[in-house]
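Before the break, one more example. Copy the sequence into your notebook; we will annotate it together after we see the structure.
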Amino acid sequence: MKLLRILISFALANVLVAELDEYDKQVIVANEYIKSAGAQLTTVIKNIVLGKFTMVEMALMLAVPETEEDVRIEHKMIDYQHIMQNQVWYVTGAVIPNINEDDFKDVQLPELGKSRRFYTKAAVKALIRVALRKDTTLSVDFEDFPQMCRLVGLYRSTKYLDSLIKSAKVRGEICFLKTQNNKTSKYKKINGSIYELNNDDTLFRLLSSQVQ
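Here is what the structure looks like once it is written out:
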């Protein structure tokens, strides 16, 4: 029954914005799902980060749907907009709100990406703050440092649009975040706090100060 509902909602969305470019259309629909998630968006993002998606796939879903970078992905870019819609629906059960094509006829992909990040960046930051404070059940899911490393990588993809994170790996005690242009940022957990490191591995700044 749930699968039928989501297929119907996608079909309705397609009719309502029929004259838009197909990829733009699905980005708009995914944005509407994200907006409808409200406070449950942190749970949606938690599920995505703890899942099997690559860092690039997560960026397409949550950070930069408008990217023109040559990314290595398993499916077509449009598929990740469908997946994003499904991820929200799985948590909220929400049906897509009506979309008026005239509201979006002059909107470009960069604007749609900015609109998405308005919601997702705030939710990612909130999830990081919860994880650092260890004050709810959500924080338990990120006690595993490799998962926290992925969450921080996603945060950086939402913040630095020209530095999409393509990998997040923990080696030893350090989280290495590598961008599409092979620049690396590093984070380390010390006595319960997480610090960003300088190139020489000295302490740069607390992660907590970056997500206020």
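The chain has a mean pLDDT of 88. The two ends are 41 Å apart (CA to CA). Try to locate both features in your own notes.
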